[in-house]
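**Discrete fold encoding**
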Amino acid sequence: MIAFRVIWMIIAVLVIFGARVWSLYGDAHTKYMQISMKSSVPGIAQIFYDIGQGFTEKSQSTAAIYANGEFSEYKFSFPDNKKILNLRFDPLTSSGHVEIRQIRITDGLGNTFLGFHLNQLVPANQISRLDIINDHISIDIDTNANDPQIYIRLEKPLQIPPEVHPSYHKTLFLSFSVILLSVLLMYLWVNWNDEKNIKKWICYGLISMGFAIVTFYCLQTCLGIFNRSIQPFGGGDTEVFIHMAALKWTNPYFYHGLRPLTVPLLYSLVNGAENMHNIIIMQTIISCVSWIFLALMVVYFLKDYLVKVFAFFLIAFIPLNGFIHHYNLVILSESLSFSFFAVFLGSCLLYYNKRSLLSVIFLAIVALIFAFTRDTDAYRVLLMTLPILLLIVQQIRNKARGVMRHAVLFIIFILIFIGSNYSTSNIHCRDCTTSYMNARWYMPMMNNIFQRILPFEDRVKYFEDHGLPVTPALMAMKYKFASSNNWQSAFDPKLAAQREWNYLHGRQTYMKYLITHPKYSFSSAFDYKDPLLYLDGTPNAWFHEMVQPIDARILSVFFLNDDRDLKMFLVLFLSSLILVLIIYVGRHGKDVEGHIMAILLVCYIILITIPLGILIFHGDLMDLARHSLTNIIQLNLGFVLLYLFMADLWMMKMRMGAVKK
């Protein structure tokens, strides 16, 4: 028995450490020139390396520059083990003002191999002024510049050896030590002969403490809102939500307005149109209650007391994340979408556990509320019909009772999606000048045509073959938005035929194009992976900006913070599926069948974020980072649940089947 448990320990250490090594390996063996810079205008920056052939396009690297008013770190790929004779930096491709604080050669982990002094920068072309001011260098570029250039003076040829930085091995050793210690502690926990149920009291004591912390945060925030030290924020759609909330419930505009029903309905219930502080109090309370509900549902499902504690803190503390806290104070649909997603997922776990009539009714009500929070949320409800369908098949095969209630839930989910989809095309709009504008998808579809179709000849030909009236007036809208030129797309008589075609055939044709061109569908979304994967498109956002005075940054190691974490998660995801398959076909597979099915459900929740991300990307190109937030939370929460369920399963196997189904 002891040998069996040791084998499971070794497997856990090797899998986790192997994933960690693979996630770090590529970055440790890749060199970059990293420049800390801010710019007054967006653009493209280039680094040119002279390796004996002068400055050529083959020996250069580019990076997109943002005009956000802050210093940002820009990385340019740097050749390994090649003799660099000269370096040239082109900060922009236009006029503007840039400031550079630091230039250094690093690896992908941020370890520095070589630093450059700012006085090594020499103006070469279209640079009107270059001054060193304290810790940075200020650069003014000529007004009509199109190719500004700065030389980075080298005293001798530069050659960076291909070796890794010494700190890489220290990082690996530290990672191995932490993983080994964690697994060893879990082993000791499993083998603790707890005759007095001390584990149980430790678990419930820590969960109570976590509950008190989240409650304290909620009360602290609400008090701050009451005394007006915390103010609500607005956004692009805030006026629309407030307008709908101010309508009487007898008004058809309230039910078929510019936005789905759930958010304006809740705003109306708290008199949000008159006092927006009521809205952010409601959103804060709903957020805390929702995530605590999900945490309790996960705790209820898990078997091991140690894993229960981790589950509660990882999930219940999500409202303490800086971005979640911020959106609880914003008069938009994001906060309620996050919260109702948590309730929806918790209801799914409750339904999976109980499979009772009450759990079916509760899940159906939650799904209805959630689907009408944001249009994309209805697709989440639709995609969850597949697990229900598989459950129905399993019940029929086992000749179990209750098949009818699962079939009814399946039908309800389908009807909810149909109702939500119908509401997007039949809205009451007081400002809509034509019947073509009574669809929520109409303007985003116009943006897609102008931005993603018209600039490319092959795509224009495809859409023209499918009936799009391609005219000079339409081609003049290339790279513009539906709102450009004071809503020219809605009022210009020359675009009347295009407006009619877009309303009747635009969405269907664009969908056909995506289906028949899968490479474009995936690759175009992957090009924008940061706003699709990370909160607000910013790496290292999980628990690094915390609600004060509560700090729980250590929890961020369980969430997706950057590309290295993504690599590690992918390895652990595939390894988990393999281990689950091995366990299922093993001697004790039937004893943990319910647990394995739950792990597969979590894997499905993770996987459906891929089509949902593509749907979000191609559905509306404006404000992509904000529109992706619920999907990002679903992805991260899926990985957290996978960790928890796999750890719980591992604990159960360590006990050699002592815990039965």
